[in-house]
Amino acid sequence: MIAKRILFLFLILISSTVKASFILLPMDETTQKNHLKAYGITYWCLNKNYKASWLLNYRGGSFLLPDAEEIRKECQIRGVSFEILSDSEQEKISNEIASPSQNMETVILERVPKIAVYTPKGKQPWDDAVTLVLTYAEIPFTAIYDEEVLSDQLVLYDWLHLHHEDFTGQYGKFYGSYKNVPWYIEQKNAAEELAHKLNYAKVAEEKGAVAKKIRDFVIGGGFMFAMCSATDSFDIALAADGVDICEPMFDGDSSDPNYQAKLDYNNSFAFKDFILERRPDKYEFSDIDDTDSRRIPMEKDYFTLMEYSAKWDPIPSMLCQNHTQLIKGFMGQTTAFNPNVIKSNVLVMGSCELNGEARYIHGEKGKGMFTFYSGHDPEDFQHRVGDSPTVLDLHANSPGYRLILNNVLFPAARKKKQKT
Protein backbone atom coordinates (compact mmCIF):
# COMPACT_ATOMS: atom_id res chain seq x y z
CA MET A 1 0.00 0.00 0.00
CA ILE A 2 2.77 2.39 0.94
CA ALA A 3 4.63 1.47 -2.24
CA LYS A 4 1.55 2.31 -4.33
CA ARG A 5 1.23 5.71 -2.63
CA ILE A 6 4.91 6.46 -3.25
CA LEU A 7 4.49 5.47 -6.90
CA PHE A 8 1.36 7.63 -7.19
CA LEU A 9 3.15 10.65 -5.70
CA PHE A 10 6.11 10.04 -7.99
CA LEU A 11 3.86 10.01 -11.07
CA ILE A 12 2.23 13.27 -9.95
CA LEU A 13 5.68 14.81 -9.49
CA ILE A 14 6.80 13.65 -12.93
CA SER A 15 3.66 14.94 -14.62
CA SER A 16 4.06 18.36 -12.98
CA THR A 17 7.66 18.68 -14.09
CA VAL A 18 6.84 17.94 -17.73
CA LYS A 19 3.83 20.27 -17.82
CA ALA A 20 4.06 22.55 -20.83
CA SER A 21 4.67 26.16 -19.84
CA PHE A 22 6.19 27.71 -22.95
CA ILE A 23 5.86 27.79 -26.71
CA LEU A 24 8.99 28.10 -28.82
CA LEU A 25 8.78 29.44 -32.35
CA PRO A 26 11.99 28.02 -33.83
CA MET A 27 13.54 30.23 -36.51
CA ASP A 28 16.24 27.93 -37.85
CA GLU A 29 16.36 26.90 -41.49
CA THR A 30 15.07 23.34 -41.24
CA THR A 31 12.32 23.53 -38.61
CA GLN A 32 10.24 26.65 -39.24
CA LYS A 33 7.65 26.31 -42.01
CA ASN A 34 6.83 30.02 -42.19
CA HIS A 35 9.44 32.42 -40.85
CA LEU A 36 7.54 35.53 -41.92
CA LYS A 37 4.26 34.68 -40.20
CA ALA A 38 6.18 33.77 -37.01
CA TYR A 39 6.87 37.49 -36.56
CA GLY A 40 3.16 38.12 -36.93
CA ILE A 41 2.39 35.56 -34.22
CA THR A 42 4.84 37.28 -31.87
CA TYR A 43 3.32 40.68 -32.61
CA TRP A 44 -0.16 39.20 -32.07
CA CYS A 45 0.91 37.87 -28.65
CA LEU A 46 2.26 41.26 -27.60
CA ASN A 47 -1.00 42.83 -28.71
CA LYS A 48 -2.81 40.31 -26.48
CA ASN A 49 -0.60 41.34 -23.52
CA TYR A 50 1.32 38.06 -23.46
CA LYS A 51 4.96 38.14 -22.46
CA ALA A 52 7.44 37.34 -25.22
CA SER A 53 11.20 36.98 -25.56
CA TRP A 54 13.52 37.08 -28.55
CA LEU A 55 16.27 34.48 -28.24
CA LEU A 56 19.09 36.10 -30.17
CA ASN A 57 21.22 33.65 -32.15
CA TYR A 58 19.39 30.67 -30.68
CA ARG A 59 18.18 28.54 -33.59
CA GLY A 60 18.05 31.47 -35.98
CA GLY A 61 16.64 34.00 -33.53
CA SER A 62 13.70 32.08 -32.09
CA PHE A 63 10.78 33.52 -30.13
CA LEU A 64 9.69 32.29 -26.71
CA LEU A 65 6.04 32.67 -25.77
CA PRO A 66 3.91 31.45 -22.84
CA ASP A 67 1.90 28.34 -23.48
CA ALA A 68 -1.76 29.14 -24.10
CA GLU A 69 -4.38 27.32 -26.10
CA GLU A 70 -5.22 30.37 -28.22
CA ILE A 71 -1.55 30.84 -29.14
CA ARG A 72 -1.31 27.21 -30.24
CA LYS A 73 -4.45 27.60 -32.34
CA GLU A 74 -3.19 30.84 -33.89
CA CYS A 75 0.07 29.13 -34.87
CA GLN A 76 -1.86 26.27 -36.44
CA ILE A 77 -4.18 28.63 -38.34
CA ARG A 78 -1.27 30.65 -39.72
CA GLY A 79 0.93 27.66 -40.51
CA VAL A 80 3.70 28.57 -38.07
CA SER A 81 5.83 25.78 -36.61
CA PHE A 82 6.03 25.67 -32.83
CA GLU A 83 7.39 23.47 -30.07
CA ILE A 84 6.00 22.95 -26.57
CA LEU A 85 8.52 23.33 -23.75
CA SER A 86 8.32 22.31 -20.11
CA ASP A 87 9.72 24.54 -17.38
CA SER A 88 12.82 22.38 -17.18
CA GLU A 89 13.37 22.50 -20.95
CA GLN A 90 12.97 26.28 -20.98
CA GLU A 91 15.38 26.62 -18.07
CA LYS A 92 17.95 24.50 -19.91
CA ILE A 93 17.67 26.78 -22.96
CA SER A 94 17.94 29.89 -20.78
CA ASN A 95 21.07 28.55 -19.13
CA GLU A 96 22.61 27.76 -22.50
CA ILE A 97 21.86 31.27 -23.76
CA ALA A 98 23.19 32.89 -20.57
CA SER A 99 26.50 31.03 -20.75
CA PRO A 100 29.42 33.42 -21.36
CA SER A 101 30.75 30.98 -23.94
CA GLN A 102 27.65 31.35 -26.14
CA ASN A 103 27.04 34.29 -28.45
CA MET A 104 23.37 34.40 -27.50
CA GLU A 105 21.08 36.64 -25.47
CA THR A 106 17.47 36.78 -24.31
CA VAL A 107 15.75 40.07 -25.10
CA ILE A 108 12.41 40.85 -23.48
CA LEU A 109 9.76 42.18 -25.86
CA GLU A 110 7.77 44.63 -23.80
CA ARG A 111 5.25 46.49 -25.92
CA VAL A 112 3.45 46.60 -29.24
CA PRO A 113 5.11 49.05 -31.64
CA LYS A 114 2.67 51.41 -33.35
CA ILE A 115 3.53 51.22 -37.04
CA ALA A 116 3.07 53.82 -39.76
CA VAL A 117 3.83 53.36 -43.45
CA TYR A 118 4.42 56.50 -45.49
CA THR A 119 2.55 55.82 -48.70
CA PRO A 120 0.37 57.87 -51.07
CA LYS A 121 -3.22 56.99 -51.86
CA GLY A 122 -3.47 54.80 -54.94
CA LYS A 123 0.01 53.33 -54.46
CA GLN A 124 0.91 50.86 -57.19
CA PRO A 125 1.38 47.21 -56.12
CA TRP A 126 5.03 47.10 -57.20
CA ASP A 127 5.98 49.96 -54.92
CA ASP A 128 6.36 48.61 -51.39
CA ALA A 129 7.84 45.34 -50.13
CA VAL A 130 7.23 46.36 -46.50
CA THR A 131 3.49 46.91 -46.95
CA LEU A 132 3.44 43.54 -48.70
CA VAL A 133 5.18 41.65 -45.89
CA LEU A 134 3.31 43.43 -43.08
CA THR A 135 0.04 42.39 -44.71
CA TYR A 136 1.30 38.84 -45.22
CA ALA A 137 2.54 38.53 -41.63
CA GLU A 138 -0.77 40.02 -40.40
CA ILE A 139 0.95 42.87 -38.58
CA PRO A 140 -1.35 45.93 -38.49
CA PHE A 141 -0.14 49.31 -39.71
CA THR A 142 -1.53 52.73 -40.53
CA ALA A 143 -0.94 54.31 -43.94
CA ILE A 144 -0.04 57.99 -43.67
CA TYR A 145 1.19 60.59 -46.12
CA ASP A 146 2.19 64.24 -46.33
CA GLU A 147 -0.89 65.73 -44.68
CA GLU A 148 -0.53 63.51 -41.64
CA VAL A 149 3.21 64.07 -41.38
CA LEU A 150 2.97 67.85 -41.71
CA SER A 151 0.18 67.99 -39.12
CA ASP A 152 2.51 66.33 -36.57
CA GLN A 153 0.73 62.98 -36.43
CA LEU A 154 4.04 61.07 -36.36
CA VAL A 155 4.02 61.42 -32.56
CA LEU A 156 1.32 58.74 -32.55
CA TYR A 157 3.75 56.09 -33.84
CA ASP A 158 6.93 54.30 -32.79
CA TRP A 159 8.03 53.07 -36.22
CA LEU A 160 7.87 54.67 -39.64
CA HIS A 161 8.59 53.09 -42.99
CA LEU A 162 9.56 54.84 -46.22
CA HIS A 163 9.99 52.93 -49.48
CA HIS A 164 10.19 53.90 -53.14
CA GLU A 165 9.80 57.63 -52.45
CA ASP A 166 11.37 60.82 -53.74
CA PHE A 167 11.83 63.63 -51.23
CA THR A 168 13.74 65.84 -53.71
CA GLY A 169 10.75 66.94 -55.81
CA GLN A 170 11.99 65.24 -59.00
CA TYR A 171 9.14 62.72 -59.25
CA GLY A 172 11.36 59.70 -58.83
CA LYS A 173 13.63 60.72 -61.71
CA PHE A 174 11.23 58.86 -64.04
CA TYR A 175 11.17 61.79 -66.47
CA GLY A 176 13.49 60.32 -69.10
CA SER A 177 11.50 57.11 -69.64
CA TYR A 178 7.97 57.93 -68.55
CA LYS A 179 7.30 61.65 -69.00
CA ASN A 180 4.58 60.96 -71.58
CA VAL A 181 3.03 57.98 -69.81
CA PRO A 182 -0.39 58.62 -68.18
CA TRP A 183 0.52 57.32 -64.74
CA TYR A 184 3.58 59.62 -64.54
CA ILE A 185 1.53 62.65 -65.61
CA GLU A 186 -1.20 61.79 -63.11
CA GLN A 187 1.27 61.36 -60.24
CA LYS A 188 3.02 64.62 -61.09
CA ASN A 189 -0.28 66.49 -61.20
CA ALA A 190 -1.43 64.92 -57.93
CA ALA A 191 1.84 65.87 -56.21
CA GLU A 192 1.55 69.48 -57.39
CA GLU A 193 -2.08 69.70 -56.28
CA LEU A 194 -1.19 68.36 -52.84
CA ALA A 195 1.73 70.79 -52.46
CA HIS A 196 -0.50 73.75 -53.34
CA LYS A 197 -3.23 72.50 -51.01
CA LEU A 198 -0.65 72.47 -48.21
CA ASN A 199 0.44 76.02 -49.11
CA TYR A 200 3.76 75.22 -50.76
CA ALA A 201 4.76 76.79 -54.07
CA LYS A 202 6.72 73.73 -55.21
CA VAL A 203 6.63 69.99 -54.65
CA ALA A 204 10.32 70.06 -53.70
CA GLU A 205 9.59 72.54 -50.91
CA GLU A 206 6.70 70.47 -49.61
CA LYS A 207 8.66 67.20 -49.73
CA GLY A 208 11.59 68.92 -48.02
CA ALA A 209 9.28 69.97 -45.20
CA VAL A 210 8.05 66.39 -44.89
CA ALA A 211 11.65 65.14 -44.72
CA LYS A 212 12.39 67.57 -41.88
CA LYS A 213 9.32 66.42 -39.95
CA ILE A 214 10.51 62.83 -40.32
CA ARG A 215 13.98 63.93 -39.19
CA ASP A 216 12.44 65.47 -36.07
CA PHE A 217 10.46 62.29 -35.43
CA VAL A 218 13.70 60.28 -35.35
CA ILE A 219 15.60 62.84 -33.27
CA GLY A 220 12.76 62.75 -30.76
CA GLY A 221 13.08 58.99 -30.29
CA GLY A 222 11.29 57.40 -33.26
CA PHE A 223 12.54 54.55 -35.38
CA MET A 224 12.69 54.97 -39.16
CA PHE A 225 13.17 52.19 -41.68
CA ALA A 226 13.72 53.05 -45.34
CA MET A 227 14.26 51.05 -48.52
CA CYS A 228 15.08 51.71 -52.16
CA SER A 229 15.06 55.38 -53.23
CA ALA A 230 13.63 56.62 -49.92
CA THR A 231 17.08 56.10 -48.43
CA ASP A 232 19.17 58.40 -50.60
CA SER A 233 16.43 60.85 -51.66
CA PHE A 234 15.67 61.48 -47.97
CA ASP A 235 19.29 62.32 -47.15
CA ILE A 236 19.64 64.42 -50.33
CA ALA A 237 16.54 66.45 -49.40
CA LEU A 238 17.97 67.17 -45.94
CA ALA A 239 21.39 68.14 -47.30
CA ALA A 240 19.76 70.36 -49.96
CA ASP A 241 17.48 72.21 -47.54
CA GLY A 242 16.99 75.71 -48.97
CA VAL A 243 18.80 74.84 -52.21
CA ASP A 244 17.00 74.41 -55.55
CA ILE A 245 18.39 71.24 -57.13
CA CYS A 246 15.43 70.72 -59.53
CA GLU A 247 15.59 71.45 -63.25
CA PRO A 248 12.73 73.34 -65.02
CA MET A 249 10.75 70.25 -66.10
CA PHE A 250 10.31 69.43 -62.41
CA ASP A 251 9.53 72.77 -60.79
CA GLY A 252 9.19 75.34 -63.59
CA ASP A 253 12.42 77.25 -63.02
CA SER A 254 16.17 76.72 -63.16
CA SER A 255 18.17 75.09 -60.41
CA ASP A 256 20.52 77.14 -58.25
CA PRO A 257 23.90 77.82 -59.88
CA ASN A 258 26.56 75.47 -58.53
CA TYR A 259 24.06 73.81 -56.20
CA GLN A 260 26.44 70.92 -55.53
CA ALA A 261 28.71 73.23 -53.49
CA LYS A 262 25.75 74.41 -51.39
CA LEU A 263 24.86 70.99 -49.97
CA ASP A 264 25.20 70.66 -46.19
CA TYR A 265 26.15 67.08 -45.38
CA ASN A 266 25.81 67.79 -41.66
CA ASN A 267 22.06 67.64 -42.17
CA SER A 268 21.96 64.14 -43.66
CA PHE A 269 21.58 60.94 -41.65
CA ALA A 270 23.84 58.37 -43.30
CA PHE A 271 25.69 59.83 -46.27
CA LYS A 272 28.35 62.48 -46.86
CA ASP A 273 30.28 63.99 -49.79
CA PHE A 274 27.93 62.54 -52.39
CA ILE A 275 27.69 64.01 -55.90
CA LEU A 276 24.24 64.69 -57.30
CA GLU A 277 23.18 63.47 -60.74
CA ARG A 278 22.34 66.66 -62.68
CA ARG A 279 20.87 65.09 -65.82
CA PRO A 280 17.07 65.20 -65.49
CA ASP A 281 16.57 62.25 -67.83
CA LYS A 282 18.92 60.00 -65.86
CA TYR A 283 17.16 57.51 -63.56
CA GLU A 284 19.50 58.22 -60.66
CA PHE A 285 19.77 60.73 -57.82
CA SER A 286 23.48 60.65 -56.93
CA ASP A 287 26.57 58.52 -56.53
CA ILE A 288 25.21 57.21 -53.22
CA ASP A 289 23.77 54.39 -55.32
CA ASP A 290 26.07 51.80 -56.91
CA THR A 291 23.56 50.47 -59.48
CA ASP A 292 25.38 51.71 -62.60
CA SER A 293 28.90 50.88 -61.45
CA ARG A 294 28.33 47.36 -60.15
CA ARG A 295 29.13 44.39 -62.41
CA ILE A 296 27.75 41.44 -60.49
CA PRO A 297 25.82 38.67 -62.28
CA MET A 298 22.57 37.58 -60.66
CA GLU A 299 23.88 34.13 -59.70
CA LYS A 300 26.71 35.73 -57.70
CA ASP A 301 24.76 38.64 -56.24
CA TYR A 302 24.71 38.01 -52.50
CA PHE A 303 25.54 40.06 -49.44
CA THR A 304 26.74 38.90 -46.05
CA LEU A 305 25.32 39.90 -42.68
CA MET A 306 27.80 40.95 -40.04
CA GLU A 307 27.94 38.95 -36.82
CA TYR A 308 27.71 40.88 -33.55
CA SER A 309 27.98 40.03 -29.89
CA ALA A 310 24.41 39.36 -28.78
CA LYS A 311 25.29 40.11 -25.16
CA TRP A 312 27.21 43.32 -25.81
CA ASP A 313 25.60 44.63 -29.00
CA PRO A 314 21.97 43.47 -28.89
CA ILE A 315 20.67 46.18 -31.24
CA PRO A 316 22.56 45.16 -34.41
CA SER A 317 22.20 41.54 -33.33
CA MET A 318 18.41 41.90 -33.34
CA LEU A 319 18.44 43.61 -36.71
CA CYS A 320 20.57 40.82 -38.23
CA GLN A 321 18.71 37.78 -36.85
CA ASN A 322 18.32 35.20 -39.57
CA HIS A 323 18.66 31.53 -40.45
CA THR A 324 21.52 32.35 -42.82
CA GLN A 325 24.18 35.03 -43.04
CA LEU A 326 24.16 35.03 -46.84
CA ILE A 327 21.30 37.02 -48.39
CA LYS A 328 20.35 37.10 -52.07
CA GLY A 329 20.97 40.47 -53.69
CA PHE A 330 18.17 42.38 -55.37
CA MET A 331 18.06 45.56 -57.39
CA GLY A 332 16.11 48.80 -57.15
CA GLN A 333 16.46 52.43 -58.05
CA THR A 334 18.87 52.44 -55.13
CA THR A 335 20.43 48.98 -55.36
CA ALA A 336 23.45 49.37 -53.08
CA PHE A 337 25.25 52.04 -51.09
CA ASN A 338 28.64 53.38 -52.14
CA PRO A 339 30.85 52.71 -49.09
CA ASN A 340 32.92 55.84 -49.78
CA VAL A 341 30.01 58.17 -48.94
CA ILE A 342 28.77 56.45 -45.76
CA LYS A 343 29.41 58.44 -42.59
CA SER A 344 31.88 56.93 -40.13
CA ASN A 345 29.33 56.70 -37.31
CA VAL A 346 26.96 54.55 -39.39
CA LEU A 347 27.08 50.79 -38.90
CA VAL A 348 27.35 48.63 -42.04
CA MET A 349 25.44 45.47 -41.11
CA GLY A 350 25.42 43.83 -44.54
CA SER A 351 27.82 44.15 -47.46
CA CYS A 352 28.71 42.46 -50.75
CA GLU A 353 32.16 40.95 -50.55
CA LEU A 354 32.72 41.07 -54.33
CA ASN A 355 32.86 44.86 -54.49
CA GLY A 356 32.53 46.11 -50.92
CA GLU A 357 29.18 47.82 -51.44
CA ALA A 358 26.92 48.24 -48.42
CA ARG A 359 23.37 46.84 -48.51
CA TYR A 360 22.08 47.18 -44.95
CA ILE A 361 23.10 50.03 -42.63
CA HIS A 362 22.03 51.41 -39.27
CA GLY A 363 22.61 54.53 -37.25
CA GLU A 364 21.41 56.79 -34.47
CA LYS A 365 20.09 60.33 -34.73
CA GLY A 366 19.28 62.17 -31.54
CA LYS A 367 17.25 59.85 -29.34
CA GLY A 368 16.08 57.73 -32.28
CA MET A 369 17.45 55.26 -34.80
CA PHE A 370 17.26 54.55 -38.52
CA THR A 371 17.96 51.60 -40.78
CA PHE A 372 18.48 51.86 -44.54
CA TYR A 373 18.03 48.70 -46.64
CA SER A 374 18.96 49.03 -50.32
CA GLY A 375 17.04 47.44 -53.17
CA HIS A 376 13.34 47.19 -53.91
CA ASP A 377 12.02 43.67 -53.33
CA PRO A 378 14.09 40.94 -51.61
CA GLU A 379 12.52 38.18 -53.72
CA ASP A 380 12.48 39.90 -57.11
CA PHE A 381 15.98 40.45 -58.48
CA GLN A 382 15.06 43.23 -60.92
CA HIS A 383 11.52 44.44 -60.29
CA ARG A 384 10.26 46.72 -63.06
CA VAL A 385 7.41 49.17 -63.28
CA GLY A 386 4.22 47.26 -64.04
CA ASP A 387 5.48 43.86 -62.85
CA SER A 388 3.17 41.73 -60.74
CA PRO A 389 3.67 41.92 -56.98
CA THR A 390 5.62 39.16 -55.26
CA VAL A 391 3.52 36.28 -53.90
CA LEU A 392 4.93 35.76 -50.40
CA ASP A 393 3.33 32.34 -49.99
CA LEU A 394 6.12 31.26 -52.33
CA HIS A 395 8.76 32.92 -50.15
CA ALA A 396 7.54 32.25 -46.60
CA ASN A 397 11.12 31.60 -45.44
CA SER A 398 12.78 34.54 -47.21
CA PRO A 399 15.95 35.71 -45.41
CA GLY A 400 15.73 39.06 -47.20
CA TYR A 401 12.20 39.71 -45.99
CA ARG A 402 13.19 38.59 -42.49
CA LEU A 403 15.47 41.62 -42.25
CA ILE A 404 12.45 43.87 -42.78
CA LEU A 405 10.51 42.14 -40.02
CA ASN A 406 13.48 42.31 -37.65
CA ASN A 407 13.17 46.06 -37.93
CA VAL A 408 9.40 45.97 -37.41
CA LEU A 409 9.72 44.00 -34.17
CA PHE A 410 12.84 45.77 -32.91
CA PRO A 411 11.02 48.71 -31.23
CA ALA A 412 9.17 46.21 -29.00
CA ALA A 413 12.41 45.25 -27.27
CA ARG A 414 13.59 46.44 -23.91
CA LYS A 415 16.52 48.61 -24.86
CA LYS A 416 20.07 48.02 -23.71
CA LYS A 417 22.81 50.49 -24.51
CA GLN A 418 25.11 49.33 -27.27
CA LYS A 419 28.66 48.78 -26.01
CA THR A 420 30.74 49.01 -29.21
Give a quick precis of the structure.
By secondary structure, the protein is of the alpha/beta class.
Share of residues in strands = 15-25%
Tally of helical segments: 13
- What is the average per-residue confidence, as pLDDT, rounded to a whole number? 91
Please summarize the sheet with the most strands.
9 strands, mixed
Structural class computed from helices and strand pairing: alpha/beta
CA-CA gap between termini: 65 Å
Low-pLDDT ranges? 6-18
Number of strands: 14
Describe this structure in words.
32% of the residues lie in helices and 16% in strands. The chain has 420 residues and is α/β, with parallel strands linked by helices. Strands 7-6-8-9-14-13-12-10-11 form a nine-stranded mixed beta sheet, with helices on both faces. The termini are far apart. Residues 6-18 have low confidence and may be disordered.
SSE map:
Layout (H helix, E strand, L loop, with lengths): L1 H16 L2 E6 L9 H13 L4 E5 L5 E5 L2 H10 L4 E4 H12 L6 E5 L5 E4 L10 H9 L4 E3 L1 H5 L8 E4 L12 H4 L3 H16 L5 H17 L3 E5 L1 H11 L8 H4 L50 E4 L8 H6 L6 E3 L18 E5 L6 E8 L2 E6 L25 H11 L11
Helix pairs in contact: 2-3, 2-5, 2-13, 8-9
Search tags:
single chain, 420 residues, alpha/beta
